[in-house]
Amino acid sequence: PYPAFVMIGQIIWGTFTAAFGAPQLGFNGGSAVFMKLKVPPEAFIANACAKIVFDLLVKTLLIVAIFVIFWAELTLSWTVLLVPVGLLTTMLFGVSLGLFMVPVGSLYTDVGRIVTMAMPFLMYTTPVIFPTADGDGLAATLMRWNPLSPLIDVTRCWLTQGAADPGQVFGLLILIPISIIIGIIGLVLLRIAMPHLVVRMGM
């Protein structure tokens, strides 16, 4: 059912956006402490990311409500056991990109504002409220090449249909090592940029 399609898509999208913003929020929230004490900023970032997991557990209640409302049109399959893989991969990808953006967003605040403003528009290039488009049009091309598309489509299919397109499943799985690499690079860049960030925040 379309309402269930949209609501589940919004939950997955909300998980990504929360994960993307968590590293910057954790860094900003702990800046007053690690500027004075030798506390690693990664501790505050990890704390902010842990809150996403708690929020996600709360959102599972919404998913249960969706199945109760549309019980006659939705059926559970064994693939529901794979849904945590999709959600955790979504979180991992969001946190990794967020880590990569912390040094840039902290040194150049305008970049962070631009990214935040672009997020609602990015949603329309993912299958959150519309199914993945067919054909060679601009919308179809953007959806096919958007790395978030398999995260949303596959997780939703595992939850509601019992099967997902093998190509999209591969796209989801390949994002796991890519996310880890991006996250490691983000942490290295953060460490390199820390002296400049401390000077900037102390001004």
Number of strands: 0
Quickly give the structural class. Answer: mainly alpha
Characterize the biggest β-sheet. Answer: none
- The termini sit apart by 54 Å
Hey, roughly how much beta strand do the residues contain?
under 5%
DSSP helix fraction: over 70%
Helix run count: 7
Unreliable sequence segments? none
The best one-word shape is elongated
H-E order? HHHHHHH
| Overall average residue pLDDT | 85
Radius of gyration, CA atoms, in whole angstroms: 18 Å
Q: Oligomerization state of this entry?
A: single chain
Short structural description:
The chain is built from seven helices and no strands. The protein is an all-alpha fold and 203 residues long.
Description:
The chain has helices at 2-34, 41-69, 83-107, 109-123, 138-145, 148-160, 166-202. The protein is mostly helical and 203 residues long. The chain is elongated, with a radius of gyration of 18 Å.
Write out key terms for the chains shown.
single chain; 203 residues; mainly alpha
Secondary-structure topology with pairs:
Blueprint: H1 2-34, H2 41-69, H3 83-107, H4 109-123, H5 138-145, H6 148-160, H7 166-202
Helix pairs in contact: 1-2, 1-3, 1-6, 3-4, 3-6, 3-7, 6-7
